[in-house]
Design goal:
It is built from 5 helices and no strands. By secondary structure, the chain is mostly helical.
Length: 130
């Protein structure tokens, strides 16, 4: 019967996957992962995320703290996941900050164009430049 070898192969692959997962969780997260998450938070903060994306920035900081706690109890898989999530949250905060800053610049430019059109209309007696 062909299903028995297939079943054994599937079980072997599953056991191998479990073994690899167990090995992956025995080491603390790398310093580069920790530093990357902290650096992403710093970059977002310096860009103005506290003003434009405070929730995302707070989530990133909270996940760094939670990762440190997970590391302390040697739940390294959780610590790694939290650090990865913290970095993504910080990058989201940075993206939202840049988007909001761009939106504000566009609004400022539109106001300047509106003022210039009004000035031209006033100085040259033109109507309908808007």
């Amino acid at each position: 019967m062909k299903t028995a070898p297939l079943l054994r192969s599937s079980l072997s692959l599953f056991a191998l996957a479990l073994g690899l997962a167990a090995c992956a969780t025995t080491k603390p997260p790398s310093a580069s992962l920790t530093n990357g998450a902290q650096r992403a938070i710093q970059v977002a903060d310096e860009a103005g995320a506290q003003e434009h994306a405070p929730l995302e920035l707070r989530f990133a900081r909270e996940k760094i703290l939670a990762a440190q706690e997970a590391n302390a109890v040697e739940d390294f898989a959780l610590a790694q996941r939290l650090l990865e999530q913290a970095e993504v949250d910080a990058e989201l905060a940075l993206s939202r900050t840049k988007a909001e800053q761009t939106r504000m610049q566009v609004e400022k430019l539109r106001a300047e164009v509106r003022d210039l059109r009004q000035s031209i209309a006033d100085n040259f007696g033109l109507e309908g430049l808007e």
